[in-house]
Design a protein that fits this description.
24% of the residues lie in helices and 27% in strands. With 375 residues, the chain is α+β, with helices and mostly antiparallel strands. It folds into three domains: 83 residues, Helix Hairpins (Orthogonal Bundle), CATH 1.10.287; 138 residues, Heat shock protein DnaJ, cysteine-rich domain (Chaperone, DNAj Protein, Chain A, Ribbon); 91 residues, Sandwich (HSP40/DNAj peptide-binding domain). The strands form six sheets. It has a four-stranded mixed sheet. The chain is elongated. The chain starts with a helix and ends with a helix.
Length: 375
Amino acid sequence: MSSHYDVLGVSRDATGEEIKKAYRKLARTLHPDVNPGEDASDRFKAVTHAYEVLSDPQKRRVYDTTGNENGTDNGFGGGSYSGQGFAFQDIFDTFFGGGGQGGPTSRIRRGQDALISVRIDLRDAVFGVNKKLEVDTAVICPTCEGSCCREGSHPVRCDICGGSGQVQRAVRSILGQVMTSAPCGSCEGFGTVIKDPCNECSGQGRIRSRRSLTVKVPAGVATGTRIQLSGQGEAGPAGGPAGDLYVEIRVNNDPTFVRDGDDLHASLNIPMTSAALGAELTLDTFDGQQEIDVRPGTQPGEIITLRGLGVTHLRGNGRGDLKVHLQVETPAKLDAHQEDLLRQLAKARGEQNHPGKLAASHGLFAKLRERLGSM
């Protein structure tokens, strides 16, 4: 069976202050309002009992000498959870302000969740990135460690409600005189009063502070994606557990690439001669330089697809594609020699004064014609 020292995680020569700090730390974690598990409840009782024995010099001396669990000479009384000399509720109220069903309200509460917005570049959305953040949140007071009290002091039982956190009063009604119950205005329903609050946190058990943390932004995120960081939000009052921090992603527009789902789109201008004769061109991508083969006779608006060079899939494996839209540039200014060469080409192809003709469309107009034809 573990000794009281093992239960609190302190050495046998620990000072009274070390025992008190160890108890506070464990009790905040195992408190029924914070950790409702059955195992936690049993451990909380064991921790509290160990503290009751070791915090009393006389009981500690008897325990060290005789090994009696209750720290009493006769082995009876003074050490039970609700017996003489020690009331479980006394220590419970001292550190937490009560908290059983129908009892006073616990000072310990979970902190609120927090939300911050972070901007990243499109490249970071493609591959993922570790982003360092500066966050202003409530953190546990480093001076009182969440106890809300000045060192050496503790909450005292409220004289008005007797530690119940509730006051009763008689109210006359059509049914006669009835008793009503309301939170105590003196202790605000906590059952205890902090008469000597911590100077740094003013008795709140937490302070505002700026802290740094690094969030791993996975590849494939998009604007609006939220990343949950458990326990990184606001610290709760009186040393309560922290809420969660949500990081909302905003992806900056890229000057070259446009995202559509997990595909990337880019526009590449090519000379008229390259479109007619074909060419091998180089395109700078997020994966470095890529060779593009422009086939002879390429028409404006044609798309060259580079497989697997798009955005990484957020869920699943692989990446989207990079689609390069070719835009054929028609020369706007020609010198006399260039103009003569084009005229010779047009004559050779029989294209002088070409009247042009309407061509059947396989795109938008074809779809519209099919829809009208079915009406």
